[in-house]
């Protein structure tokens, strides 16, 4: 009998599952990797959709109304856009909101000179709140108007815009005085302060204060417990809003305070419903991020009147996006040590280049490559593109796709009287779907087998997106000089020959 040699145990079997996965991924081809990532993205998308459907099925009517309180009849008539009053109101909505706003909207305008439908800002957006009563030599503004003695005096203070409807101003003023919780509770607190010793008391809007037994997920309107009168030596939290009677100047409101949005947009939050705050929790018990909160509030849902706000809705989107970016930048500034900024490439060169420049004295904050639009992000993406050029040569196709504001997918989802620029969220979603569909066609090989591709999406000054694509085709499918006319056409095909392309 012969003795069979013992089979050597493979070292591959000794590796952990994670190591085996890494080895397989290192050896897989580009097509296999793209297919695997595509399946992974599809599973994640389906998982999020299923979670959303389950949450909506389990959501009661009471919870839905807490998130989107029914619009008062007055505001429902004004937001529908059917009557002449409503059409005038929507066309001047930003002006009406600025008159009733309790805080000022501060930003540095960096728009290009001349007419431009878009707004470009530089730096941060901030909301400021002044004293409850104006100084003797100044007229009342913002929240101070609400505390004037009579309705007639309030209307005269808001009468600086002659092109606004006096009847609409009177009806909105009366309704907010009666139903907005911030106005009612602050007026009550102000009267109590006037009756006592003013120098020993202050009015505070709490950052984290809700009624006993209130559910943590509720977007509640403020209650009496959220506005308090304190003695001057009593401590307050960092984000609490402390109001003075006449002194104190302007005070900046924290972006994480629950009153940040309702004080700035009383026509969107007429009851004083809470905006985003850091104590907000989802159904799964996890904290809700700002991105999740505002993504939820701009989705198409029954009773979501924010989507009818036209130019004010655009301002609201800009404000919300800047809040999200501000918190991201604050996180990066706080976590510089954990990001190991001393190991970043080119950091030493940048410090040496700034040596001796008095304008760049201070702490150096490094934005990682994961921050979209940052210097390292752009440098990394540019390096990836140049790597494609070095490996595959120059690109075979350079294709530009521009958004058309009259696409049926956009027009069919607009409310009566709305234009495409009134709903930038729909424009962005439709264009994203068009880009994904175009990439699906390209991956199927309509111009040949793809070796590599990249694209970038930009926004024009008029607010519409466009995309630039670069495609590298496999050598056996590269286009020849005599075949250019087969791939490139500058004419509209006849309807009888290609109806689908003619309609596009």
Automatic annotation (TrEMBL):
Which intervals carry biased composition (Basic and acidic residues)? 25-65
- Ranges where the Helitron helicase-like domain occurs: 293-470
Protein biosynthesis: is it a keyword of this entry?
no
- InterPro entries, per the entry: Helitron_helicase-like (IPR025476)
Location of the region described as Disordered in the Swiss-Prot/TrEMBL record: 1-70
Query: Keyword set for this entry?
Result: ATP-binding, Helicase, Hydrolase, Nucleotide-binding
Question: Where exactly are the transmembrane stretches of this chain?
Answer: none
**Residue spans with biased composition (Basic residues)?**
1-10
Q: Return one GO MF term.
A: helicase activity
| The protein's name | Putative Helitron helicase-like domain at N-terminus-containing protein 3
- Tell me which species this is from: Homarus americanus
Q: What is the lineage of its organism?
A: Eukaryota, Metazoa, Ecdysozoa, Arthropoda, Crustacea
